[in-house]
UniProtKB/TrEMBL annotation:
InterPro entries listed in its UniProt record: HalOD1
Lineage, broadest ranks: Archaea, Methanobacteriati, Methanobacteriota, Stenosarchaea group, Halobacteria
Protein name: Halobacterial output domain-containing protein
Residue ranges constituting the Halobacterial output domain according to the UniProt record: 11-83
Entry-linked Pfam families: HalOD1
Domain of life: Archaea
């Protein structure tokens, strides 16, 4: 069972964090993955997690989707959690985070 938790610098767009986290999880180069826009609009994903109009960082919310054989969850704090599909079974319980 495998799960990766990946955080790029705050300045990196969320879409870039997703691509790198998934590539790490499936042990491939980010450029070898199918384009992220095939499953979610990268610009919209980035906009969801940009600071608010007042400049403050978002504190709540998340979005989840499947990409490159993985389940991806992006949280308001910028954390990207990636779990390879099929890596988790009911008998195995909750996934373990890997930093």
């Amino acid at each position: 069972m495998s799960q990766s938790t990946f955080t790029l610098p705050e300045s990196a767009p969320v879409s870039q964090r997703v691509t790198h986290a998934v590539a790490e999880e499936v042990d491939t180069d980010p450029f070898d993955l199918d384009p992220l826009f095939n499953v979610i609009d990268p610009e919209s994903l980035n906009a969801l997690f940009e600071p608010t109009n007042t400049g403050s960082h978002r504190t709540t919310g998340s979005v989840a989707f499947e990409y490159a054989g993985c389940e991806v969850t992006v949280s308001a704090d910028g954390t990207v959690d990636v779990t390879a599909r099929g890596a988790r079974t009911e008998s195995q319980g909750n996934p373990t985070s890997v930093d």
